[in-house]
Each structure stands twice: as C-alpha cells, then as structure tokens.
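Bit of a strange request maybe. I'm writing a small parser for structure token strings and I need a real example to test against, not something I typed by hand. Could someone generate the tokens for this chain?
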Amino acid sequence: MNAPSKARLDGKARDLAGLVGEARAGQRRRPVCPSFLQGFQRIFAPGLCSAFIAGMLRMDGITGRILAASAIALGYHAGRFRLRGQQVFSRRDFLATGAVGALAMASSRFSRAEGKGSHNIGVQLYVLRDLLARDFDGTLAKVAAVGIRNVEFAGFYGRTAQQVRTSLSNAGLSASGAHCLLASMSDDVIGHMIDFCHEVGMPYMIAAVPSIKAAHSAGKAASSNPFEHIELEDWRWSAERFNLIGARVRDAGMRFAYHNHNIETQKYGDIVAFDEVLRLTDPAVVGIEFDIGNFIAGGGDPYPYLEKYPHRFELAHVKEWVTPFAPTITSTFPKYAAFGQGTTDWKKLLDALKKAGVKEIFIEQDGTATGDELGAVRQAYQFLRKVQVRS
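Reply from user aminoacidic:
Good idea to test on real output. This should exercise your parser:
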C-alpha cells in the first residue's frame, strides 16, 4: 500500500471518531488523555479520555480507527447539549417553527449557483488537515485567498460550533457540509452532531463510508473495516440506517448525503454495491456526494450513473490520478496527479456533472508528491475555473 493512500484512509476514519468528541465541545472541556495519539490529540476536541479507544487508535491501518469511531459512538452518553450562539436558533426551537422555511434557506446558496449556470468549486478541508491543526484561522484565510468560497469539513479541530462559525465568517467562507456521520453511530451521537452542524449553519451532513452491521460483524473473524471486508448485507443495513439518519437531518433543516469511495464498485454476483445503495436509499432524505475519482479508482465508469440518475447526485468530489493504474477496491489508491496532467476529460466531466444536477464540486487532491497541499488546491482550483470559462 502506498503511504499517502494508507494515511488518507486512516485519517478519515480517525476524523470520524474525533467528530463525536467535538459535538461535546460546547458542553464541557477537559484535558485530553496522554495516551491518545499525538495527531488525534492535536486535531480533535478534549474529553474522550479512554485507554480502550486509545489502544484501538494505535492499531495499524484504518481498522483501528473505524473500531475507535464505533466504540465512541456506542459508548457515548452525554447530558443536554447547550447551544451557546445567540444568533442561531436551537434545533428544538427550529423544529417548533417548522423545517420547510429553514431548509429552503439552507439550500438557497446552491439554487443561486445553479441559476448562474456554473458549478461552485469548493474544497474538502481534509486535504489541508495538517495546516488546519497548526493554524486553523490562518489556513481558512489562505483558502479564501485562492478564490474559494465554499468548504467542506472533515473534523473541527477541537472548536465549538460557534467558534467554527466565527472563523468562517472572518475568512469570508461558507461551510457547505461536513463528513461527520456513520451508520453505526448511536442515535444520541447523531443528535449531538445535528445540533453542532445546525449551529455552524451548514446545509449538508455527510457519511463518508458505509458501516459493518454490528451483529453481522460479530459472527465473523474479519474486522469491521469496510475496506478489508464488507458483505452485501452490510450495504443494505447501511442504506436502511442512512434513510433513518437522513430523515432526522431533514427534520433539522439540513440535508443528508452519502459519499462513496472505491469499494462501491465491487460486485456480489450480479449486484453492484453502488447500485444497491442507490436502490435502497430514499432520494427524499438521502442525497449522494459522488466522488468521481474514487469511483474511477475502483474501476467504475461514472458517466452511465450521471445519465441514469439525474438529480440524485447533489455534490461531487473530483481528483486526478497518475495513469495508468490498476483498479482496486482496497485501501490502496492510485497516486495523485496535478489537475490536467492525468487522462480526465475535464470539460466532458464538468458538463456531465452540471447536466446531472450536481450543485457543487469539491477538490480533494490529497497526498501530493511535493507535500504542498495548499499549492495543489490552488492549482486544481485555477485549472477548473479555466475549464469552466471555456465551457
């Protein structure tokens, strides 16, 4: 496995674990346990002091990270979550006043963008995680200086919702959403995450990976890491959970979406995992964030899906791979290339995304050869803007 790919997936699962603690940040703060990994300690909120969880976080690979996220989710119990921002309705006040109007307000930015006939180009902030951990506000300002106005979170770096909201406002940025949910999360944790994201003011909450059904996982020796082993029953269970989670997110005035990796391309007889997710999830409560690069990495062809399911794909991630590469459904991903230096027909892709009704696309160019992640984001953004101008 190449190191950047392994680190990327390890980090994403670790981030999901951290988000559970961050939902508690507005309630109480206490020092982080010394046994936590240094990176976890640096990025995420205090208050998750558990030697058991810390031990799982030390496990090699994404497996330990996903186990840690599940353990935190299943074991988490908290008191009443208190919203401290005076300029934002609490979720319960919001529910009392009605969801429809707030949902319309949350989606109005995307509607305006569609009216202009062009995509909003944002960035998934996971690619800038090291910079954000060192200088959260300064990094957001640098993102804005690139010309980007919309960002998607994958971790809040120990900040409360009001602090995140203030930092975004100071930088002139808007939060489009966050990778912050798992099918395996408890209902209490999901509720706290909904409160957190509603206070930040983002329209989308996103699940980045499927989960392994707990009872199903207990009966087999394989880990609960979906990149190592996932069965059709797990996909179906995750889809059912997404429908339930999506309804709760909708009732809070936001929109739930599922984000794919490469494992969605695997087949179970004649059934493709991604097809099953699309079949079983309810479009009324579950949108899809189509990660085009991930799907291609797994050997999938995104264009038939964009044509077959117009307006099902609401958000998209884009990236460029060094070619040629062997398609894979493991955590070993191809190497990243600078935008325009691979084989992607970007005009064709952007036109197809627009025709399919995709509201916003996010750059997710991670693990660059030079280590200059901000430079990679800048290059990708400038390249995509030029393609849009020519379209």
